[in-house]
Design brief:
Layout (H helix, E strand, L loop, with lengths): L2 H30 L4 H6 L11 H12 L1 H32 L5 H9 L10 H11 L5 H25 L3 H9 L4 H12 L1 H17 L2 H5 L9 H6 L6 H22 L13
Helix pairs in contact: 3-13, 4-5, 4-7, 4-10, 7-10, 10-13
Length: about 270
């Protein structure tokens, strides 16, 4: 057996051990969702459940946290925030990299500076502005906020990707009569399938997992995000809380597997 094969097997064994360490608590978290409150409090966390209280636990979180409404709200905010931010970032990145506009670096820094400051400093100004404009505790206000806060990162990633595309390709398209809009949608967007998918998934996940802004800008169960709903449950009924956490984790996992095929489908021509 060669040294290369031995090292590969050692790496595989190490990765297998790490995967078990990562999966083990997840499995037992799911197992404990089948326990009743009394069984969990009086027993051991690692004990196998004696019965199946999954339905009762789901009823509890639906009645006390309105979990399904929270899931629907978070899905709406995350989808709209990710889609709109990626769309706006596409136009901004294309204009900064390939259109003849003045002060490109200024506009890049102007947009990107939204990620320089800690997100906590946005709480009070946005809260006051939303209160005056009537956007506080509204779905429209949450969509606006998540869209705006996701634009800088999306623009940064797409701008770096577009800079690596040869200008000769775009000039050839212009000679053939393609407009700037056609060049963006028929040439650049298909080539940028992977980065667009990555930024969409990352921003969807960020919006979905956000707790701070969801708690600050909402107050009613009909508008509250799923993470806010879960956080307000407390630890009175731990199996129900674990079930709520599992439910809140499912959409992002499904989205990852759904979009995984897009991560390696695009290509780029490097400028010489």
């Amino acid at each position: 057996m060669t040294g290369k094969k031995v090292s590969r097997r050692v790496i595989n064994v190490i990765l297998f051990i790490f995967s078990l360490v990562w999966i083990f608590p997840i499995v037992f978290t799911i197992v404990n969702t089948f326990k009743s409150k009394q069984e969990y409090n009086l027993g051991n966390f690692w004990d196998v459940p004696a019965g199946n209280e999954l339905g009762a636990n789901f009823t509890y979180i639906q009645e006390n946290a309105n979990i399904l409404t929270g899931v629907g709200n978070s899905f709406l905010y995350a989808i709209c925030g990710a889609c709109f931010s990626v769309l706006i970032a596409l136009f901004a990145a294309y204009a900064i990299t390939h259109l003849e506009i003045k002060h490109r670096m200024f506009w890049f820094m102007f947009i990107y500076c939204g990620t320089i400051f800690p997100f906590q400093i946005y709480l009070i100004p946005v809260f006051k502005g939303y209160s005056e404009l009537g956007l506080y505790n509204t779905r429209l206000g949450m969509i606006f906020f998540y869209t705006a806060i996701c634009i800088p990162f999306c623009m940064f990633v797409l701008r770096n990707f577009f800079r690596g595309i040869s200008k000769e390709i775009l000039e050839s398209a212009k000679i053939d009569g393609a407009s700037d809009f056609q060049i963006l949608w028929k040439i650049l967007v298909p080539m940028a399938t992977a980065p667009i998918s990555v930024v969409f998934l990352s921003q969807f996940t960020w919006c979905w997992n956000d707790l701070m802004f969801g708690l600050t800008f909402t107050k009613s169960d009909s508008i509250r995000t799923v993470m806010s709903a879960v956080s307000l449950m407390g630890t009175v009924h731990t199996p129900a809380l674990l079930l709520a956490c599992v439910i809140a984790s499912v959409p992002t996992i499904l989205l990852f597997f759904f979009m995984q095929k897009n991560f390696e489908t695009s290509f780029v021509y490097q400028s010489k």
